[in-house]
Write a structure and sequence with these properties.
Order of helices and strands of chain A: HHHHHHHH
Largest sheet of chain A: none
Mean pLDDT of chain B: 76
Radius of gyration of chain B: 21 Å
Largest sheet of chain B: 5 strands, antiparallel
Shape of chain A: elongated
Low-confidence stretches of chain B: 62-101
CATH class of the largest domain in chain B: Mainly Beta
Strand content of chain B: 15-25%
Shape of chain B: globular
Distance between the termini of chain A: 34 Å
Distance between the termini of chain B: 58 Å
Strand content of chain A: under 5%
Number of helices of chain B: 5
Oligomer: heterodimer
Number of domains of chain A: 2
CATH superfamily of the largest domain in chain B: Immunoglobulins
Number of strands of chain A: 0
Low-confidence stretches of chain A: 1-14, 16-21, 107-114
Number of domains of chain B: 2
Number of strands of chain B: 8
Structural class of chain B: alpha+beta
């Protein structure tokens, strides 16, 4: 980890001194959404995902301040293991039976249960992506739907399209690239 | 700890992201992938895009994701089977006060000129505010992050099917390390003015 810049006279508060790096804040910016996803999938719900992310970042921040993670390359693995522990603790400290029964009561036999990970994507963003998907070619849209929504095995998709697995991957990458271009155009 | 590590090429070749979202991976492979994407600048954006695509198809009404229903039903059975063992577990370490601060952040909501507005007083120490506009079912309609203490959402930007239902604001003040300082209770967004 690089040392923060300091003014020649050693006074970090001197005018013109470059602002010291705030590793904790940078950490939060970089890992926040990744931790929310990890937690939502582990917990099976978006409830608590923010809590896990916040608690994980707090503990990692403390470890960094105490110089317990010295190699930058080791940081992602440390964050992962910390998040695992936090999820396990949250799971044990929450009344799982009550949550399971309340989900059953809410869902019912006919209702489609909510996808915990989809809950991480705000409705506003879902609509943006939906509009972009509708602007793809029918074939591109179908491949993405089969892969990411219908949960078909890639081998089965390749057989249906009479493609090799490698050729399917190429089609997938092209479709995703076009989708990204449409979304980037919309975002700018 | 995962038994092995994945690299980007393997993630791509095996369509691991799709398998992860579909819950097709073994527990070890899922854990290996999680450890990988948490620190990967290539695979994380790819997973984000896959998630958004999956969520967007969910509102295109192109079919039921039956796998999710089956997993939810199985989860209930697991909980019921484990209920008898619950009392035998040792008390687990609890995470104290994980939810941010007190619910003492008051949000003022208004609606006029085709827009919904939420405002609040600045919170000492807050770097930014996480703002969510929830629908009646609890789903997040809008999710924003701002350093300001007011936010406005154009009604036209919301899904037409959701514009007339109940909506609620929730604001959380966070510090620069994203630790929660205060959180508002759910505050009803004002009913829309008639045209």
């Amino acid at each position: 980890m690089t040392q923060p810049d300091v003014a020649p006279d050693g006074d970090p508060t001197a005018p013109g001194t470059p602002r010291q790096a705030e590793p904790g804040a940078d950490l939060a910016l970089e890992y926040w959404e990744r931790l929310r996803l990890f937690a939502a999938r582990r917990l099976g719900s978006t409830d608590g995902a923010d809590d896990v992310a916040q608690e994980t970042l707090r503990r990692v921040g403390e470890a960094l301040a105490a110089d317990r993670v010295r190699e930058p390359a080791a940081l992602p693995g440390f964050i992962f293991r910390t998040a695992q522990h936090v999820c396990q603790q949250l799971d044990r400290s929450t009344d799982r039976e009550a949550r399971g029964l309340s989900r059953l009561a809410a869902a019912g036999p006919e209702a489609d249960p909510p996808d915990a990970l989809a809950g991480l994507i705000a409705a506003e963003r879902r609509r943006e992506v939906r509009h972009a998907l509708l602007r793809l070619s029918g074939d591109d849209r179908k491949i993405l739907r089969q892969l990411y929504f219908e949960d078909m095995e890639p081998e089965a998709i390749a057989r249906e399209w009479r493609l090799t697995p490698g050729a399917l991957r190429v089609r997938k990458h092209r479709a995703l690239k076009r989708l990204s271009q449409l979304l980037d155009d919309r975002d700018t | 700890m995962p038994e092995r590590l994945l690299d980007c090429d393997e993630v791509d070749a095996r369509d691991v992201a799709a398998g992860y979202l579909a819950r097709r991976l073994t527990a070890d492979t899922a854990a290996a992938y999680e450890e990988h994407f948490i620190g990967c600048g290539r695979c994380w954006p790819a997973l984000q895009r896959a998630m958004e695509t999956r969520a967007a198809f969910g509102i295109l009404g192109t079919g039921v994701n039956r796998r999710a229903w089956g997993l939810a039903a199985a989860a209930v059975l697991v909980v019921a089977a484990g209920a008898g063992l619950w009392s035998l577990r040792e008390p687990a370490a609890t995470i104290v006060a994980m939810r941010g601060g007190t619910d003492a952040l008051e949000v003022h909501a208004s609606a006029e000129l085709g827009a919904l507005t939420a405002s609040w007083s600045p919170v000492v120490g807050a770097e930014r505010y996480l703002v969510r506009l929830h629908g009646a079912a609890g789903d997040a309609l809008v999710e924003r992050e701002t350093s300001d203490t007011v936010i406005t959402v154009a009604v036209d930007s919301l899904d037409p099917a959701l514009r007339t239902g109940a909506m609620f604001w929730q604001v959380q003040a966070i510090d620069r390390l994203r630790q929660p300082l205060r959180r508002s209770p759910l505050t009803a967004a004002s009913p829309l003015s008639p045209p």
